[in-house]
Amino acid sequence: MKNKGKIATTIVIALLCTALIVTAGFALYERENGARAGRVGSAYGGAALGEFAMSLGELSETMDQALYATDGALLSSLCSRAAANAASALTAMSSLPGSTQELERTAGYINGTGDFLLFLSREAADGVMPDGTYSSALASLAGGIGTLADGAGRILTEHMDGALEMDEYASSPAEAEGESVGTELAALEEELPEFPAIEYDGEYSVTALEREAKYLEGKSEVSEATARAAAAEFLGVPQTRLASAGLADSTVPCYVFTVDDGDGDGRTIAVSQMGGVVIALTCAREPGSASLSLEEAAERSAAFLQRRGWEDMEAVSTVRSGATGIVTFAAVQDGVLCLPDAVSVGIALDNGEVCSFSASDYVMSHTDRAIPEPGVGEEEAAQCLPDGLEAESERLVLLETEGAQEVLAYELRCTGPAGEAVTVYADAADGRQIKIDAPRS
């Protein structure tokens, strides 16, 4: 922390210098065609490095301030500002050349920090201050960001002094010769501590990062032969037409098979190793001119699911992508639409064939739930709507938060003043707005 003021001053000077370098680079573009690409690339890389270091410095300083905040409004403001700094650092990082774009752990750490800060900002805005666990997590992340900020500031200074060359665009760490900005950033990444295990409502929480497929819990592992039989039945083809493409070691390990449909077209299907459930289907064929409507695609996709045992499913959206109609369904339990339990079916609009299928969301989320009783009724929930907006339909749905937590909510479908569809979700426990879908008209 003691070096941050000096580093910030260095960064400001560096940014001014890099701006001059960019200007000079464009001048050289006109006069020195042979060297212009490398010089302009170095100039842009230097500018991106300056933005990266400055954003990290501001992020670190703001997080240090947040550690001492005892007022909810102030903490919310600080965390919101720090999250914006994290987003700026990621944007600058994406503009760095060559091997510097391969720092996935650094990017994940910054992104996770920003996600946690947004969560703390929302909590503080509601008057909920961090408990001991969240305070410790914030302090841990502040330390990691401080390490990155100090290191980025040092690397920027050495680059401006000519001690470190900027990597070339499209290069890789193996191609770097000697010390460069990229190699130093890679070394800095090695100093970064592990992202703390935090249980909070965000995408970097322990629950979200370590979630397992609920639908496959308790199911037994199947052999490749059993998976092949399931794939052939799903496709409606003889097993002999399926060629094995091996076992995909993904979040849900799957046996993968291909089918040659001739003329260079083919289909690929994935079947889960646990339980033998078809997870995905893709087709290489590009559909021709459409002759079917989206309504017809929805009917065909619903019939397709029913024939394969997918019951208690309701269509929630139908969109067109080129000459393919993609219909998304969600499971219904006890009259509640469970939006996390999603299955999508793609119908080729030229001949009505199923050209894609995805049940990954369903497999990750579906389970027999104990759905709670709502704390408020439909009329009370509708009071969350702003003036001029009225609910045209209401129903109970389950939503999934970024932290993979489920919330019972009222889905209030409305029409906005410009005729656009607006859907507001109110927490069924207390009627508060928790989500708004308002696509551009």
From TrEMBL:
Keywords: Membrane, Transmembrane, Transmembrane helix. Residues 184-372 form the Sporulation protein YpeB PepSY1 and PepSY2 domain. Pfam families: YPEB_PepSY1-2 (PF14620). InterPro entries: YpeB_PepSY1-2 (IPR014239). The chain crosses the membrane at residues 7-29. GO terms for biological process: spore germination. This is Germination protein YpeB. It comes from Candidatus Scatomorpha intestinavium.
